[in-house]
């Protein structure tokens, strides 16, 4: 594959996915979810996680699996760190505590379904053509997350857009493929 072809494919992916959805899973099974731009750095992700910790001075590391790869290059973009268009990042720390995230986040849980609907509505909005045609976009402001009842957190979006999640199309239940042989039918 030529260099120009690779670059055009990368540009096409960046245009198709202007937002990166990252979920950070903590050892206590809570998940912090945030939306980022592909050209933001791993350092921006670390800053986002640190801003939602109960103890901001806590030393921690972020990693992805498999294989376990610690995200230790703060200048790497999310695209370069293979966190594009979405990823599950794990939180690790040598210090063990009962909870890592702020208590107020843990007191306002959001279900996993609502978090997935938020992602779907975000991706639907980002696929709409934008009015600006600038090449570089400013980083997203730090979002305000909430914690899911199943242990996840997500960013609060407009409540009306959360209900606009993509629904799978259903075909006619009376139609079955020719190759399907059901018992009792001739």
UniProtKB/TrEMBL annotation:
<dbReference type="InterPro" id="IPR001012">
    <property type="entry name" value="UBX_dom"/>
</dbReference>
<dbReference type="Pfam" id="PF00789">
    <property type="entry name" value="UBX"/>
</dbReference>
<dbReference type="InterPro" id="IPR029071">
    <property type="entry name" value="Ubiquitin-like_domsf"/>
</dbReference>
<feature type="domain" description="UBX">
    <location>
        <begin position="15"/>
        <end position="91"/>
    </location>
</feature>
<dbReference type="GO" id="GO:0042593">
    <property type="term" value="P:glucose homeostasis"/>
</dbReference>
<dbReference type="GO" id="GO:0006886">
    <property type="term" value="P:intracellular protein transport"/>
</dbReference>
<protein>
    <recommendedName>
        <fullName>UBX domain-containing protein</fullName>
    </recommendedName>
</protein>
<feature type="compositionally biased region" description="Polar residues">
    <location>
        <begin position="149"/>
        <end position="165"/>
    </location>
</feature>
<dbReference type="GO" id="GO:0012506">
    <property type="term" value="C:vesicle membrane"/>
</dbReference>
<feature type="region of interest" description="Disordered">
    <location>
        <begin position="124"/>
        <end position="186"/>
    </location>
</feature>
<dbReference type="GO" id="GO:0005737">
    <property type="term" value="C:cytoplasm"/>
</dbReference>
<dbReference type="GO" id="GO:0005634">
    <property type="term" value="C:nucleus"/>
</dbReference>
